[in-house]
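User: Design a sequence. Structure:
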């Protein structure tokens, strides 16, 4: 059967953009092809490539930020350590929803978790002689590797697909025993696979981080978004799982972008463990006038990068964290729509011959959430991504996230109610054309 969009049109757009291997096309390139194909064909695209919140920003944050601006906050530089009220509320939020203690001092506002990881990479990679390499538990967020490329820091990576549970520790140790790893990075829930590392796996990571003296950077961009558990009640278990229970060598990256749909204001908080914050590393002390790790992070790295974080956005983040911790604002209820969308989308894809690539957390099906992964029979990532373009569906290839599996990352954030019927219709044709 004829595809909804002419193949020649899509192929020409890809060629005109100079994309020689569609498997390696970036998110922005996929988005550009989709936008141009939609315009030229008049066929609405079902856009699943961009990880942008599809919900309104949390009103409690907007109100606090507007008031701060009206009160004149824009004229003054923020403290490089951060707005004191935000630091206090971040510390309370971590206690309420993660169940660990991090002093307000160690909670440092950043211009989104992106800046948080950049400053963390800088600090960790300079801390100890010979420890000059970052280890990624992949798949993961491609831009973090680009950050290391920009700063000239080396990295290693492995796909966790075949190393869940008891296999994770030995795999990690095979890298750590070389003595060159300064930091371990992963997201939990995971972008793009939506797998969630469990307590046993986090304990293995924490124990090895202590043994080999490296820092764990836990990216909590999709905070508490494992919708299989009720993580919404402050100061009550179950809590957001964390490596912070198993080591003192940790930095938690908490973003306002997804949990509070506050992506546009670029606001997040890096929460550094009390012990790591105050620890003196010889290399850092020599280079930065004897300062401990936490103050190098804030008064050197962040100061050099941006001289702090948007003052008014810090008021927004403080208000959102406070409302959540006080039990006045159930942020999980607002974002649970992503899980509902994922459930419906997976059902449509699977009915038409697709499969979920990262489908299990050990013996339990992965949660429905912001992302999921799909594959189709023997198609490679690049073949599948390009083929779906002819059906007005855009997604990115797993290869760009450090995965070794053939398949695509699907984002649920922009799906509208009328598009389920469109997807159903188009995937029925897809299945006929690709038996």
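Assistant: Done.
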């Amino acid at each position: 059967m004829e595809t909804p969009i002419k193949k020649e049109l899509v192929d020409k757009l890809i060629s005109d953009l100079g994309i020689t291997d569609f498997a390696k096309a970036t998110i922005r390139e996929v988005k550009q092809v989709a936008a141009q194909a939609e315009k030229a064909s008049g066929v609405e695209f079902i856009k699943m490539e961009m990880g942008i919140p599809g919900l309104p920003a949390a009103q409690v944050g907007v109100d606090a930020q507007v008031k701060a601006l009206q009160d004149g906050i824009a004229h003054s530089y923020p403290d490089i350590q951060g707005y004191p009220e935000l630091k206090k509320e971040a510390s309370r939020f971590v206690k309420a929803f993660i169940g660990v203690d991090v002093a307000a001092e160690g909670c440092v506002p950043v211009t989104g978790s992106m800046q948080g990881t950049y400053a963390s990479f800088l600090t960790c990679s300079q801390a100890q002689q010979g420890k000059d390499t970052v280890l990624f538990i992949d798949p993961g967020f491609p831009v973090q590797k680009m950050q290391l490329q920009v700063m000239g820091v080396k990295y290693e990576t492995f796909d966790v697909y075949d190393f869940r549970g008891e296999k994770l520790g030995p795999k990690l140790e095979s890298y750590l025993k070389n003595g060159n790893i300064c930091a371990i990075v992963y997201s939990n829930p995971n972008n793009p696979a939506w797998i969630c590392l469990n307590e046993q796996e986090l304990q293995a990571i924490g124990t090895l981080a202590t043994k080999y003296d490296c820092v764990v950077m836990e990216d909590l961009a999709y905070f508490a978004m494992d919708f299989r558990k009720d993580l919404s009640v402050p100061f009550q278990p179950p809590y957001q799982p964390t490596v912070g229970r198993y080591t003192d060598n940790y930095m938690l990256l908490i973003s306002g972008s997804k949990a509070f749909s506050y992506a546009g204001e670029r606001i997040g908080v890096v929460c550094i463990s009390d012990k790591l914050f105050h620890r003196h590393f010889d290399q850092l002390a020599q280079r930065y006038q004897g300062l401990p790790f936490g103050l190098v992070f804030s008064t050197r790295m962040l100061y050099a990068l941006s001289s702090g974080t948007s003052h008014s956005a810090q008021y927004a983040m403080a208000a959102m964290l406070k409302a959540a911790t006080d039990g006045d604002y159930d942020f999980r209820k607002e974002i649970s729509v992503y899980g509902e969308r994922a459930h419906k989308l997976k059902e449509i894809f699977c009915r038409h011959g697709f499969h979920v690539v990262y489908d299990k957390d050990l013996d339990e099906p992965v949660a429905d959430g912001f992302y999921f992964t799909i594959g189709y029979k023997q198609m490679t990532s690049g073949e599948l991504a390009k083929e779906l373009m002819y059906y007005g569906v855009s997604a990115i290839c797993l290869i760009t996230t450090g995965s070794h599996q053939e398949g695509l990352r699907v984002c649920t954030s922009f799906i509208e109610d009328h598009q389920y019927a469109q997807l159903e219709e188009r995937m029925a044709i897809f299945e006929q054309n690709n038996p």
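The mean pLDDT is 96. The two ends are 12 Å apart (CA to CA).
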